[in-house]
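Minutes, project check-in
Item: structure for the 273-residue chain
Input as provided by the requester:
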Amino acid sequence: MSKPGYGKRTAPDQHPRSQHDFAHLPPREAAIAGYLDRLPDGADISVKMLAKQLPYGQCALRTALNRLQREGHLRRGRERLTADSGTSHWITRSWFSRTARDDDWWAAFTRGDVPQEPPDQPRRTLSRAYVLLAALGRTAPALSLSGAECARLAPLLTPWFERGATDEVVRHALTSGLPVPVHSAAALVHSRLTSKLPPEPPAARPPRRVLECAECGLPGPPEALPGGVCGGCRGGGRAPERPAALPPAPEIHARAAEIRAAMDQRRRERTLV
């Protein structure tokens, strides 16, 4: 695993894993992409670390990772995180997507506005809500539901999941403190799903992200980094300028103290007059 704030981060809303995920890539790049896909979030995917784990040299790995960027599987950049105390700082990110994304998708992801994509094929598996309702009878036999009742009640669980409720939270809300006897399991589940719906969570602030050129590391807007490479490194224009660094914290604090002292001096002068 890498240091906190570094390493792999999985991009959201990917298609289910299949054996054809990287069939469009050359064999070496496909093997490396498959290896990255299986790594957990936070794993160190730097060239030096990958060279220790895979049978490729650092030069070959760097070339392969750049190919993965051009194909839309990888982007490098930074993301600003805010702690509970209100302080914030920028951390390095390496985002990996099993599903190949185009530049427009990565631009939307950088803004925190990830477009939702329909699956390539309709899924015939049972929904999470249906499975949860169908299993209620194992925890509380009085709440055994038929298949038709599960299908009818399942949409009521959607707002629960959207508000962050886990399966265990839902199960506890439905099965705790049951009356004796339960005359209608479906009616009781319907009543509890509507009356015990948890409150909506506070609106989350959109993330602040910036992508970096895979070659020179200069940050820039997604539109200036097609394929994850800036115009200067592609030979098609000037690279984006690196933003000026902020002064160190002690210098900022000292300057603020000087300003406050000057303001206090002016107040005293006005009082004497």
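Outcome recorded: The chain is about 40% helix and 10% strand.
No further action items on this chain.
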